[in-house]
Amino acid sequence: MAIEPLFCVDGKKAIVTGAASGLGRAMALGLAEAGADVAIADINMDGTQDVARQIERLGVRALPIHVDISESGQVEQMVETVLREFGTIDILINNAGIPPVGRLPSHQMKQESWDKVINVDLRGLFLCARLVGQKMVEQRSGKIINIASISGMLVNKGQAGMSAFCSAKAAVIHLTKVLATEWAPYNIKVNCISPGYMMTPALQDVAKDPKRLQQLIDLVPMGRIGEPEELKGAVLFLASEASSYVTGHNLVVDGGHTAW
Q1: What percent of the chain has pLDDT over 70?
Q2: Is the pLDDT of residue 206 over 90?
Q3: Which pLDDT does position 181 carry in this prediction?
Q4: In the predicted model, is pLDDT for residue 162 greater than 80?
């Protein structure tokens, strides 16, 4: 097969959670640019509508959906809506998540802060994978890409209040391997991407402090913070036939941060 068709997702039907902004927005646009119809699922409906308009200008279908992934009923409704409108689900980008809550060290962290992060970043991700996975098992094909983080591989230097977030992202990496092995017989590939520091809305406050921003940059061999658009290539690789023999893999996109 020629190289270019390997990376084509023309006509595929995708869900991207947390797609109203940041990494999710960039990945949703990347899939649409490569020909996929995309369901933009997020708790922020204004953002989903904006991304949907951008996608439709590319000549493919966009489906904005309001969903809180920590609520199983809303996840079920999301899956039902996509199946009704698209007929199938070929690709799931499990991206929705929240940053650390409270930023307190573990001995001072409130239980509700821990629960909130775990409920979205781990439990919500599993709910989406499980319900979409059921449909993919029936159709005996599919691609699931979970968005983890380098925070699941190392402890973020100089940052307090990371225990729930780091634990959730480490669990996402391992859950990816479990699902990959369970669903391999059904021709479902499950992989994850671990981004490093990216210039998303969640990093905007840090970016306002030149000293703090430089501390983060100093952790990266490439000497800069990544841009959300730099995930497009990784997503297209894992969502397309280019990765037909790849499953259970954690693709790190971090400018070399974890190589130190």
Answers
A1: 99
A2: no
A3: 98
A4: yes
pTM of the predicted model as reported, rounded to 2 decimal places: 0.97
Look up residue 97 and give its amino acid.
Answer: G
Q: Domain coordinates of the chain in residue numbers?
A: 3-201+228-253
Percent of the chain with pLDDT over 90: 92
- 3-201+228-253 placed in CATH 3.40.50.720: yes
